[in-house]
């Protein structure tokens, strides 16, 4: 480093070629070898600029932009003495994204600041996947249920063009090899009772080239530690060796592939093993501003008979490691027991009946929706609700129950309900903090790929969650989905209003269960799920990216839970997301009353006043006109009435 005043003959000569304008200018170039690089010219010839570095908004360091770079000298900036470098601290390798900003003055950031970085500890030894991290590098794998991913459990033949074998994974072959390669899903016992779903690939004659391609987004932040790619393979050939070539790179819009990493796997006869390799951070950071798609390519040729599975991309580790649990790993016996219960549960769900692959429901590693049920006493309804989730939700999920200051009796029952269910998490608020703050707490502590807010006075029906997932992920722009119900304003069937003009609470016909009623609605086979301007919050399926974009529910304006879902819907729509009603799904709503009539009216009046002021009365006036003209909902109501 040099002093603040730089004087030399060369710099005096440089003054002829550069302008002194009195204000700083600079650029944050990016990250290389775990260091931030850039430059900043103070605007005054011969004077270095002092910079402030902030991490997540907090000042952590000051540095001088006084290092030499030839390109800056050529450009005429301060004899080239205005570059800077800052080594990113090891403390930021913590499995979370961080924002790093460079300020030239107290309030002015240099160009391209801030940037985001992500890294994990270099001395990690005991984990196979770090939770969190850049969305573009999260796990994308073949550890999936064929039924849920749309893979048919039958043998197929590779055709010309793309052959989708699992989410994000496709097969391509040269034209001469198409028709000679079969692929189908299998369930494999890899190592010591570790069961996987794999894809078996087998050729009937020598193949020139088979290419397996996965698409990822280019990393949306700079990486400061290696990124691991891993897979499981099993070679079924009894003689001779083969090779599996691994390539990682970018495919431009014109279809040209440029590799930044390449490796070869030797496939020995009858061998099955895990493979993992670390991709240097610099290799992926070099693609940061590139246009195109990040691809992983697996290429093989010759006589092929292999299984592939357990693909993952995004774990950053120092060296090749494998997760292996053995008794005694945990100092706390309670944690050890909980861990073992989770593994036992997962395997019990993972093991298929050999005669029917379609019965496999769950395997650890899937990204799961998280159901959030806020509870404030009314224990009888809570018990019915939670038991209906257990009985009617085969789709893999996480269940989070938040007790908002209920009585000791309710709290004890919830703890007992969750103790033998490793997928259930029970949270307790020490005091009653209100509905909106309670659901926000649950969302902050959630890990699910989507959130389903479910009132504790509901009864779900068979297949309800799978249906909501299907509708939500039919279009990338869909952000929130809600079901039909007996009491959910415009989502109600068969009646919307009662004779007095109030919102209807439709009772089930005598002798008809919730599942019976859901089956009636399902039998109509509606696949058109209407887009709406608002949804009832009693059952609210939200994609994680919606929350990441618009934030949590407004607990300041709507602390007790009246109006908060309307505000959330409006914010989601204004951010470009669509709202849909799943016309193939029915959830019963008992409509218990947490507040008296007068208090409810007071809360509704207050909420409406805030919403009118925030969004304008005209927007609310338009809602009824839009919702009352949805022909498909009217058709469903008529079919239900006439059934």
TrEMBL record:
Q: Alphabetically list the UniProt keywords.
A: Glycosyltransferase, Transferase
Q: Note the Pfam families from the entry.
A: Glycos_transf_2
Domain of life of the native organism: Bacteria
Q: Name one GO molecular function term.
A: glycosyltransferase activity
Mind telling me which residue stretches traverse the membrane in this protein?
Answer: none
Question: Could you tell me which residue ranges the Glycosyltransferase 2-like domain spans?
Answer: 371-482
Which family would the database say this protein is a member of?
Belongs to the glycosyltransferase 2 family.
Q: What is this protein called?
A: Glycosyltransferase 2-like domain-containing protein
* Native species: Proteobacteria bacterium 228
